[in-house]
Amino acid sequence: MRQTTGQPGLPLWLKLLFSAWMLVWVPAYLWLYGPLNFFWLCNLANFLILAALWRESRLLLSAQALAVLLVGITWTLDVAGAFLTGHHIIGGTEYMFDAEIPLPGRLLSLYHAALPLITLYCLYRIGYDSRGIWLQTGLTWVLMVATWLVVEPELNINWVHGPFGEPQDTLPPGLYLLVAMLATPLVLYLPSHLLIRWLLPRQNTQ
């Protein structure tokens, strides 16, 4: 159900284009990486954004904007820096230069650069819901615990076993998970929340 705010809704072309993208991206990622890869928060965001677009849900779009804004920016900077200089500024995108991964699969990962623009555009049109930070924090905690319980530690999905994709042995595994769960909303979602409220002051609706 669309959440009405008196503001213009989301264009049909965007909904159809994103739906077409998902029809390509989902089977390709499933074939290349397997179903466990969808445990990544950024990959889950694609599904939630698709649902939010068709429902025109400010709350769900706001939550996913927090999930992808800083992640997408840092991902893009790291890939661009490695491409230009041969060195990763931040880390975590080394797979983009792994020749063992088919090039089409790596190109499909460029969605990380597009999602911040898509979500900001949507929020500009229908408004930002400040409650999104609580929804996204809850979703993140559930997914991080599920990842820790279900996915092999070697994959280190959502970095629940170590930062920047690398394993850590400084803290006991359970304690590290707790620290990561607390750090994620503070390091990623809170700055994104404040940035969006600054960028879109007239679109703040809650």
What does this 3D model show about the protein?
This protein has 206 residues and is mostly helical. It has one domain. The protein is built from 7 helices and no strands. It has helices spanning 12-33, 41-55, 58-85, 103-108, 111-126, 132-150, 173-199. The two termini are 18 Å apart.
Q: Give a count of the beta strands, DSSP E runs of length 2 or more.
A: 0
Number of domains: 1
Order of helices and strands: HHHHHHH
Instruction: Sketch the major β-sheet.
Output: none
Write the layout of secondary structure elements.
Layout (H helix, E strand, L loop, with lengths): L11 H22 L7 H15 L2 H28 L17 H6 L2 H16 L5 H19 L22 H27 L7
Helix pairs in contact: 1-2, 2-3, 2-5, 3-5, 3-6, 3-7, 6-7
Features:
single chain; mainly alpha; 0% strand; 206 residues
